Amino acid sequence: MKSINSNKRAASKRLFLFAIVALVIILGIGMVNHSRGLVVSATLLYCFAGVIAFIMYLDFLGYTRFINAAVVITVNVFLTLITLAEGLETGGFLFIIPTIFALVFMLGNTREYKLEVILYFIINVTTFALLVLLVPQKSNWQLISDAIYRTMFVTNTIAVVLLCAVFAYIGIYFERQVYARLVDERNKAKQQEEMIREQNAHLRDIAFMSSHTVRAPLSNILGLASLMNHTHDDLESNLFVINGIQSSAKELDMVIHGIVAKTGSLINK
Predict the structure, then answer these.
(1) Which of 215, 238, 208 is nearest to 225 (CA)?
(2) pLDDT in tens, 45-62
(3) CA angle 66, 67, 72 (to 5 degrees)
(4) Which among 91, 176, 220, 264 would be 20 to 30 A from 25, CA to CA?
(5) Assessment of whether the complete model's pTM goes beyond 0.70
(6) 132 domain residue, yes or no
(7) Which has the closest alpha carbon to 84: 49, 44, 25?
(8) Is 24 helix (H, G, I), strand (E, B) or coil?
């Protein structure tokens, strides 16, 4: 459960960083388009940024169940609208490439997200193919000059390359963190295993001392006590027995202290 929650938090953090980068690019292109008089394109981009920001806010509030799906659907819908508004010659449809590129990194490339990544990949590739096949070269929604088409294509291409580079950096950074966490967890597991081995060794020692080492002085004490019952009139024999009992009692005391020490070290670990 702890590992699953950790993976979800990591995926959420990835998604947040990708969204921040995407928002900066989207707003930047939106302002550029607005300055060129492309009101439709700018409005769509501003709406796109607003929806992405709202999705991230929902993620922040803890509504994470359908966040990834919402992001993928939003990206595909808005890129379709923007491509229709601008035409293929602006290169807006190319922004699906960094989206595809970011999928694995965004979701963490973990086993529980494998089918999800494949599904989102199919959605993005399908959208890309449909845009290339069905959208006209020039926009029917707004008037764009050939010079602006060329400029927008260059701008969008640079933005796509920049997004791919940033997404790759963020993805590699998080993958390294995941790898470091896995190594740390593996080391902790090895330490725990070694500790269990040491504890088992202590338990075996305690069991041996209880079953063998304690029995020797205890048997001596019992034997000497029995002997004393038969020699209670013989002072010299009684002194010998008493000395033997004292010696065995001291030996037993040392054994008990040893058991207590081993038990204490076992508890402290």
Answers:
(1) 238
(2) 999 999 999 988 888 888
(3) 100
(4) 176
(5) no
(6) yes
(7) 44
(8) helix
